[in-house]
Amino acid sequence: MAKYIFVTGGVTSSLGKGIIAASLAKLLQARGLRVTIQKLDPYINVDPGTLNPYEHGECYVTEDGAETDLDLGHYERFLNLFTTQSNNVTTGRIYQTVINKEREGAYLGKTVQVVPHITDEIKRRMLHLGQNGDYDIVITEIGGTVGDIESLPFVEAVRQLQWELPEEDTVVVHLTLIPYLKAAKELKTKPTQHSVRMLSQEGVHPDIIVCRTERPLTPELRRKIALFCNVKQEAVIEAADAPTIYEVPLTMMREKLDVICLKKFGIAEYAEPELSRWKEFLDKLKYPKSKVTIGLIGKYLELQDAYKSILESFVHAGAVNECQVQIVNVHSEYITPENVGEKLDGLDGLLVAPGFGLRGVEGKITAVKYAREKGLPFFGICLGMQMAVIEFARNVLNLKDAHSTEMDPETREPVIDLMEEQKKVTAKGGTMRLGAYPCDLKPGSLAYNIYGKTPISERHRHRWEFNNKYLDQFEQAGMIASGKNPDTGLVEIVELPGHPFFIGVQYHPELKSTVESPQPVFVRFIRAAKERAEKISEIKKTQLQSSEVL
Description:
By secondary structure, the protein is of the alpha/beta class. Helices cover 38% and strands 21% of the residues. The strands form 5 sheets. The chain has a 9-stranded mixed sheet with strand order 13-12-14-15-23-22-21-18-19, with helices on both faces. A 7-stranded parallel sheet has the order 5-2-6-1-7-10-11, with helices on both faces. Strand 10 (208-213), helix 8 and strand 11 form a beta-alpha-beta unit. Helix 5 (114-128) packs across helix 6 and helix 12 (308-320) crosses helix 18 (520-549). The relative contact order is 0.11.
């Protein structure tokens, strides 16, 4: 029977429950245990698919097409395992399920209530992943903060499971904040005490308290927290701020977070954690041999979580190339033909990010034109690929009215058009082309050389596509379709042979990049940017030597 770990948070949001959960899972996995993680979100949206990125960061898409919380991206990047629809549950989905059952008469005339019907459905979801024998340990991260009204049913479900399951089958990890007051020059434990007391008032008693802190916890502070929060002193874990999230598993290993959980579960025999590849990655990450500067062209740049998977993919690709990747955010709304050279000066590569809607589109098209003409390594993802198509149509094919029907439904040159199966869709949530689809690559193309095989499989999240009516014109002018869906003919990849690096993909490759399996397009893109930076450095060195001779 599977064991269950519940991760809750207190005092404030954004403490890093997802990173702590993923780090704990990584350590347990490294000891040979089969582990999975799920995220329970307290908002009433059925999924994050309709949320603005400013609201909740990026929408992470799984292999099976679920639009989920961005924390699932952390889970996959740490564990190098796919998650599914079952790994993310929202209040909206819980209520939707219960209401549908009520309409079907499943409750036999009973009055449907939060307790027991909503909490029973939450418990069913919490236990689901552990009931088929695939996992030894299931970690459940409870979204929100203890004390939030919307989180109460989830906390109550944890309370009931603590009572229903054998004591050795559950562990509750509570993440909290130990603030440092500069005026008093000391760490304060009172917020943590109040948070644990609030959790205890709901009937849930934490076994482990993980303390986010800017300063080291002294033995006296640990003892104080243990005494007033009713846990053992060794179960008070220090989670100090780290330079990178990928150091957190090693920090938690030094604090013995995984060992404490194993002891609570009564698991006496376990292997030492095998983290050699993880440590090798960290060494390359911390001690790069070179540096590149990449321009990220987007319109949600005020919130970095909107492009979380892209940023982490750059981390992975940088480590492979033993190269530090410095990201320069360039807001597409502020790029014009007059200032594009100034905005993009000094970059070694350019990535045009995905997105929706008209805002910032012309700036993206202008940036693509600059990259194409100047030989700057270019990588376009989803909308970024579509912007490359529109730019090529306007400035090479001379189709001046070329556009996407998403932005201009009346365009006379719809080089990007709504997918046929999307034309009758009216509902927004969960109706895009979602999840993993196959793609055949053209032998000899850049895409084929990058992946080294065909077919490939990548994840999608879009409604618009390349209009194949224009394909012959594009290929005759030099932009080839190097990747296509074998069933529909959908153009998945476009590229420009002869350019140092110019590729656009309709799918979202960033969603499958992990520490142990960096995404190959990102890896090759960073390599191209690195080669450009080295070439420019050599030219400058030669010029300097020539000037010294003169």
